[in-house]
Design brief:
The structure is a homodimer.
Chain A: H1 4-20, H2 26-32, H3 39-52, E1 55-56, E2 65-66, H4 68-78, H5 86-97, H6 102-117, E3 120-124, E4 133-142, E5 145-152, E6 157-163, H7 170-184, H8 192-196, H9 205-224, E7 230-233, H10 245-257, H11 259-268, E8 274-278, E9 290-297, E10 305-312, H12 317-337
Antiparallel strand pairs in A: 1-2, 3-7, 3-10, 4-5, 5-6, 8-9, 9-10
The first copy, chain A, binds a DNA duplex through residues 23, 25-28, 37-41, 43-44, 46-47, 57, 59-63.
InterPro entries (chains A, B): GAF-like_dom_sf (IPR029016), HrcA (IPR002571), HrcA_C (IPR021153), WH-like_DNA-bd_sf (IPR036388), WH_DNA-bd_sf (IPR036390), WHTH_transcript_rep_HrcA_IDD (IPR023120)
Domain Heat-inducible transcription repressor HrcA C-terminal (chains A, B): 103-321
Keywords (chains A, B): Repressor, Stress response, Transcription, Transcription regulation
Chain lengths: 338, 338
DNA sequence: CTTGGCACTCCGGCAGGAAGAGTGCCAGAG
DNA sequence: CTCTGGCACTCTTCCTGCCGGAGTGCCAAG
């Protein structure tokens, strides 16, 4: 086990490196942090930390920089979450309250996160998985053509065109609409399939084909739309990454364009609270020199989606975590109100 | 006026510079293009071209590179539009035909354009301005709460929640729905206001307040949604820009995140055909070292939206223009079919 | 108007030297 | 056993001067 002081040294190294972006040496450390020991002692500690794999030196006779493992220890044991200042909190709230619809909420959130953390922000649209049905509507566009509209309690609306196998009468349609709604409104998506299973039985044989089609489309919509959309922003902040640009930034931009990758990234974070994935802990290769801080957010007790930021492993973890957590909370509030 | 040969020299310079990214000198020119004159002659021509402002040299005794003005001349007079190869055309068509809905069409288009041109692609969602109403639906969610759903012929669906000043009966609602649709279905958005103006007169005084609210929301939706959304992709291609990265790439990324800027950019291109804006011709400062190639596309004869690419001024104009034009055509076809 | 020749300029790369920062190790003190 | 100061060593970085190459501009001749 590492002694108290060695942990303190590691913390100091991380803090200094995050601030200066330069390898940090023993002398500078003793000066900037008032460690009560001499540089020589710190050197010994550093040697020990290096043996354990927490820090490394780019070349002999250079200062040390933290490794992924070092950051991990820092995040787990040494760093708290830095709360935002109250002006910041107020700014967040004001900014988010101006949103007019769901797209706007997500858009504002992304910009806010990017600005607060000065990193790339990723916000997943509220998931349909946990949400409930507010209304289902069927519109007859033509004798054998319907439109299905699904409205969720998170304010999302999905629509599908349906080509029916046979024409369907307006009264039957109204009947179907009424029955459908009485069964599924207020219910969770996951419950819907079993709730509508026996619906066709209530109708004439002539109409059953159409009704089957409608129900199939509805269930399909519920499933398909569980695949999430997301919005990203603040990519310009990538330019602050480092000096060895093209090599670093390219794979990150590529990864960010692959929504699938990002969704997986957010999805993997199972921790109910905040998740921090550091460097190579990220599966995706392009992101192996970045860290991802993510957290679930939602209108009620349950998380309906995730949001987070992507930045260099050398990031201000306490500050970033504070911002991410705060934004998630306020977005949750906004969603609950609307 | 510039002589024929001097134009030829300019063309050669542009082509070589686009290929090599390095200033091109007189000797290399005579070798790579079989100009029938000596380097010395070319030097004289270059001096003339430089006097006219078509080319410039980074430093004394370096080769020449084209200026914005030089590219402009090249695009206007010297370059054709390079048609795509037929395998490319087939690939485009196949790729776009797999799309399942509007979002998917736009998403695929953006990826396609980015891949074909190896630059940043921007695609505007089909505009509602020119499109017509396919259906208007009113759903009673609660006694005094409605949802308005607007379906357009471009496949777009917009919805709005309406809080009514007074409860409205189901029969009145059905009546309103029927009248509304009989008047506006098939009509252009711009026509709608005058068509529905006198609708409230057909109803009882009790309901007029609510109906006014509904109509107001409808008109508002039509206007608001003229503000376009757009999708961008291929930002990773920015890393191919040049070697002086952070300075170049940052303002571009920032500009790309400002949808307003991009919309203005596309909107400014009034030319019915293809528009090419080179370097400083772009108003936005961050884009002063980029060129924008854009073109309108649409399902019928009329353009309903724009798409294009953003790349370095040093780009392959004929190839890029060819790709942009081809993609626009195929997207138009796809939209017309659906 | 074109051509070859020639002097000139400037960039880029390379070697060598000096400075600075940081390390590792050791021996001695607490 | 831990901490400390000292010292030699290692690297990187920066600056300098130097050379070669590429390209230009100008001039005089064809």
């Amino acid at each position: 086990m590492l002694s108290e002081r060695r942990l303190e040294v590691l913390r100091a190294i991380v803090q200094d490196y995050v601030g200066t972006e330069e390898p940090v040496g023993s002398k500078a450390l003793t000066e900037r942090h008032n460690l009560k020991v001499s540089p020589a002692t710190v050197r010994n500690d550093m040697a020990a930390l290096e043996d354990e794999g927490y820090i490394a030196q780019p070349h002999t006779s250079a200062g040390r920089i933290p490794t992924d493992k070092g950051y991990r220890l820092f995040v787990d044991k040494l760093a708290g979450v830095k709360p935002l200042s109250s002006p910041e909190r107020r700014a967040i709230q004001n900014f988010l309250e101006g949103a007019v619809d769901l797209d706007d909420v997500v858009g504002r959130t992304v910009r806010l996160l990017a600005q607060l953390t000065r990193q790339v922000a990723v916000v997943q649209y509220p998931s349909l998985t946990r949400s409930t049905v507010r209304h289902v509507e069927l519109l007859g566009l033509a004798p054998a053509r319907l439109m299905l509209v699904l409205i969720t309690d998170t304010g999302r609306v999905e629509q599908r065109l349906i080509d029916c196998p046979a024409p369907i009468g307006e009264t039957v349609l109204a009947d179907l609409r009424a029955r459908l709604n009485s069964r599924v409104v207020g219910e969770r998506f996951t419950e819907v399939p079993s709730l509508v299973q026996d619906l066709p039985e209530a109708f004439d044989a002539d109409d059953r084909g159409t009704i089957q089609t409608v129900l199939a489309t509805l269930l399909e919509t519920l499933v398909e739309e569980t695949e999430e959309r997301l919005m990203i922003g603040g990519t310009a902040n990538l330019t602050r990454f480092g000096h060895d640009f093209p090599l670093t930034i390219r794979p990150v931009l590529e990864a960010l364009e692959e929504q699938v990758v990002l969704l997986k990234l957010l999805g993997e974070a199972k921790d109910p609270g905040m998740t921090v994935r550091i460097g190579h802990e990220n599966q995706h290769e392009g992101l192996s020199s970045t860290s991802v801080v993510s957290v679930g957010y939602g209108s009620g007790d349950e998380a309906v989606a995730k949001l987070g930021v992507v930045g260099p492993t050398r990031m201000d973890y306490p500050g970033t975590m504070g911002a991410v957590r705060a934004v998630a909370r306020y977005v949750g509030q906004i969603l609950a109100e609307s």
